Structure formats: C-alpha cells, structure tokens
Amino acid sequence: MHTPVTIIGAGLGGLTLARVLHVHGIPVTVYEAESSPSARTQGGMLDIHDYNGQLALEAAGLMDEFRAIVLEGRQAMRVLDRDGTVLFEEGDDGTGGRPEAQRGELRQILLDSLPAGTVRWGHKVSSTRALGEGRHEVMFADGGTVVTSLLVGADGAWSRVRPLLSPATPEYVGTSFVETYLFDADTRHPGAAEAVGGGSLIAPAPGKEIFAHRESGDTLHTYVALSRPQDWFAAIDFTDAAAATARIAQEFDGWAPELTALITDGDTAPTLRPHYALPTGHRWDRVPGVTLLGDAAHLAAPNGEGANLAMLDGAELGKALAAHPDDIEAALSEYEQAMFPRSAEAVTFEGMEVQGIESENNTAQGLIDMFTEKGQ
User: Which residues does NADPH bind (predicted)?
Assistant: First the structure.
C-alpha cells in the first residue's frame, strides 16, 4: 500500500497502529498535541490481557520487549471489607493472563520501535474537514495543515476527527475517580502498604469504592471511586489539597484507618478524574478515507479494557490495511465491522470496578460473587 496513513494521537492505540503499519512497510505519520514524549506522566499500571492487548503486541512484534517490563507479582489481588477484613485473595504465580506494566514504559517501547520522525510532536489539532473523494484536511493550532487520503483518529475522548464520522459526544456517566499516590509506602505508610499487599486492593461499598495498586517500587496508586453528580465535585476546591482530601475522606467515615490512609496520607494533591462515555454500541456509516480507534471510537467508563481495546484496534486496522493494499475502503470496512461488536461487548461484560458502583450490590461479597461467576 502506497497511500501514506495519517494518525492523530500518539497514545497506545495510535502507536500500535503505526508500528504494525511500519512492520508491513506502509508509510505513516503520527501527529501528537503534546510537545514531547515526556511532556506529562502517562498514568499508572495497565494489565495487558492475553485475549486483546497481548495479541496487539504480537502483531507489532514486541512481545519480548513487553515481557521485559512486566512487573512480577502485580496480578495478585485482594478484596477487603470496609473494616479492613480480607475476604478474598488471589496470588500471582506468573501464569495469569493479565500481566501488569507501567503505561509510560509500554508507550516508550512503541515509540522506540518506530523510525525517527514518525511522530510529529507539538501538533495540536484544531479542526478537520472533508475535501471530497476520501481526502481530508487537518488544521493545527499553530496554523499548519496537512491533507491526507487516509486519516485515523486515535485522539481520545474529545477527538477532533470523530465529527467527520459521527455527531456523538461523550457524556458524564455519574462516577468519578479521585487519584492519590503514596510513595515509599513500605516505610512511610506501612499500614496502607500491608493492606494493599503485592498487587491490587478493592474495597467496595454502594456508591463508593477504594481501588489501590502497588506500582513499581513501593508506590501505591489509589483510585477513589464515587458515584456523585458533577455538581457535587464542582463544590470541592481541588486547588486546596488539604480541604479536598478531607472532603473525599469524609465519604469513608468509619472505614478502617489502613484504607482511609490511602486517601488522607497521599503524597500528591488529590486529582479529580470524571468518567465520560460515548453511547454503548456507538457506530457510524462508512465514510471514505477516515476511521477511528480506541476512545475516539468507543469511550467507556474505566473497566480494565480501554487500553487493551485501543491497542487491538490499532493492530487489527494495521493488519486490514496490509491485507488490502489496493482497496482502502475494503480494509476500513472490514476493520469497523469487527471493531463495533468487539467494543460493545467489552463495555457490557466488564466494568467490575466502576460501572454499577451505585448499586446496593456493590459490596465485597457482591464483587467476590461476580469474580466467581466470571471464573476469575
């Protein structure tokens, strides 16, 4: 295929696509709004599943590099009641299908696998428009433009490419995370470190949940999930770290101190992460010369599948383009018809940690029952 591919967004999905295209000798350029690979931290741990994310890495020829960054033992998981009692525990013997790695290290593997200059940093998209006959123009905030015959929106929740295909916009789903970090936890926060253990901790209750993960070293990364309207969070001044921490901790009054310490003893200011989603089953009619992947196509509330699905989207799109070098539309159609049901299934099947936390069944025992039913 000689038509160059233009990808908007250098996240995991866009970079996986770029890598698979490179493997197949297809020219590609990625435009990314961030000024450099280190412009911001890339988030926490990701469990890369053997039925989607790892398949993408295999297609990209990067499984050895991935195995080298896997953090051993992090698949261990425990479920605690609000009083700190461990009700369920699962170890990590290395045979599980969802090894954990740091998102930033995974992204760097993908970046390192691409020829220099593939990613054009500091290119923030301001708008896109159709030119006819499958060609599209991308306008950047600095006034620059690029015209392409094959445009892929890998630019996340607030995609500037999506309007070429669909009028859908993300809507708040009713839940948010408040993130905190505890550093040097084994020595500085021993109670919280012991509660989390070597992998992850989940302490659920109706309308709320504490999820914490041991990342590289002895860093604990906590996601406090709350089912509250946006106005409730808007009333909290997150620029005042102490006041915001106290207000969030108040929602867990009476919980075990080793659990609330994951909130109150944070070494970073609490960060609000509202959850948005596109309509479940979001799809569009085929539009020549353009498609979407990852959150741009099927944004959902966090459910453990988002990064994995984005990577698989990228790999499958790259493989389809390589398989149909003389028929771009056949490749895009084949990709979309498989991607639509795949992403819809993931939204409805997964979501144990966030979706449904407002339910009266969001308890430790309810979560254990869910694990049992799903063969976890």
Answer: 40
